[in-house]
Amino acid sequence: MAVRHLSRRANTLSPLLPYTPNHHTRYYASAIPVPTATTSDTTNANPQHEAALSHPDPAADSQSARFTSQHDPYHIATYAKAPPVMVKGFGSRIWDMENRSYLDFTAGIAVNSLGHAHPEFVRLLAQQAGTLAHCSNLYHNAWSGELAKLLVTKTRSSGGMHDAARVFLSNSGTEANEAALKFARKVGKVRDPSGAKHEIVSFTGSFHGRTMGALSATANPKYQAPFAPMIPGFRHGKFNDIESLDALISEKTCGVIVEPIQGEGGVHEASTEFLQALRDRTKAVGAVLIYDEIQCGMGRAGSFWLHSSLPPALHPDIITTAKALGNGFPIGAVVASEGVSSAIMIGDHGTTFGGSPLASRMGHFCVEKLSDPSLHEAVRKKGQQFKQHFGRLREQFSHSVGEDRGRGLLLGLQLMSDPVPVVTAARERGLLVITAGTNTLRFAPPLIITDGEIEEGMKILGEAMEAAFRSPSDIHGQLVGRQQEIPPVR
């Protein structure tokens, strides 16, 4: 019965997802066994609290709590994690160890753009892993060149960087940004052998990664302070401040890195005028312009790259990408112009795992899917659907909900207070949302999310806000019976 129910729901997925009942049923029938909860495991210490909610956070005596208590002592504590233990997903839904399904408005922080456990992705992953996973960059392989070629051709054909020429493949977003910063430094040395042209410019509110180069470009004391001092040669300016650029970007500048939409910083979009001024100024001083599209690229903003919707005069010299490029498989990439690429010599940079046959095969599949114009059109329409709901929430909670920002399916909703009570209330009703910047709810669902799932999720969010805004200490509301029939986790 559980499989029949899941098969019915699978038929509501986007037509971009190939689906056959036999394949789908086989996948779940052969799922890896995981610990599951019994009725006694999920009994909450507060029965009234549990009765009022469909997804109460696991109690201290639950299977989930016992699982985490056994494993947390072995983790270096770098994240404050929510109590549920996630064990599997499909499409826009994810299941926890207590056999409960959540609607996922986060997509692993803008990663699972094709949804969880995409059947074709799963098939190709197993096929390539069984053929050749890794052989090092001392040799050619069948897929890294194909992925590089596809990234360049799709970038150009989508209206993106018109002089895209070559690609460097890495394992993650921060590594892609590290490579981009190194490439900018190398270009600076080629253009000025004295070494004076070495400064990197970035902007307030940015997030470019946690390795030391990318961290030095991340103009946020919260991330930098524990690891100060930063690498010398980095300057930070105010985001969207055109008037400051002449003084900020000088003949000493070798590179400027900017997110066209700052995701982690609160979903703030760079104005077209600001990007134009950046492009003009970097050209004037001979600096490399880097667009960090790790979060906003790959179709998320409603075009293959966010800058695909901009005129060629605003195009960068380097694009960095990761996240959706692998749909959950670790991969990153730098797409560079010939002017940048020609400055990089053999031995200047490298990677052990970047461009492996397995990572490249999965990246190739994702680029093929995420470069589809029909997907981009659907993303734009779904973004408008979200924004219509944001407007209604603003009317309903006028003293608590502010403006909405972003494009496509990278959206932010400004709250007037700490969003954590809303995040918690939503999770305990079966909806996953995350935060960004200052008091901002961030929405980055799978791009294949259906209209019906958006309606369902926004209804839950409204109920969560009603509970959270009514009383910060009473975020649990009175929702009963939302728990849907779900397949058992095996």
UniProtKB/TrEMBL annotation:
The keyword Protease does not apply. Residues 38-47 have a biased composition (Polar residues). Its cofactor is pyridoxal 5'-phosphate. Its EC number is 2.6.1.11. InterPro entries: AcOrn/SuccOrn_fam, Aminotrans_3, Aminotrans_3_PPA_site, Class-III_PLP-dep_AT, PyrdxlP-dep_Trfase, PyrdxlP-dep_Trfase_major, PyrdxlP-dep_Trfase_small. Residues 38-67 are annotated as: Disordered. GO terms for molecular function: identical protein binding; N2-acetyl-L-ornithine:2-oxoglutarate 5-aminotransferase activity; pyridoxal phosphate binding. One of its GO terms (cellular component) is mitochondrial matrix. Keywords: Amino-acid biosynthesis, Aminotransferase, Pyridoxal phosphate, Transferase. Pathway: Amino-acid biosynthesis; L-arginine biosynthesis; N(2)-acetyl-L-ornithine from L-glutamate: step 4/4. It is found in: Mitochondrion. Its main location: mitochondrion. Belongs to the class-III pyridoxal-phosphate-dependent aminotransferase family. PANTHER family: ACETYLORNITHINE AMINOTRANSFERASE, MITOCHONDRIAL, AMINOTRANSFERASE CLASS III. This is acetylornithine transaminase. The gene is ARG8.
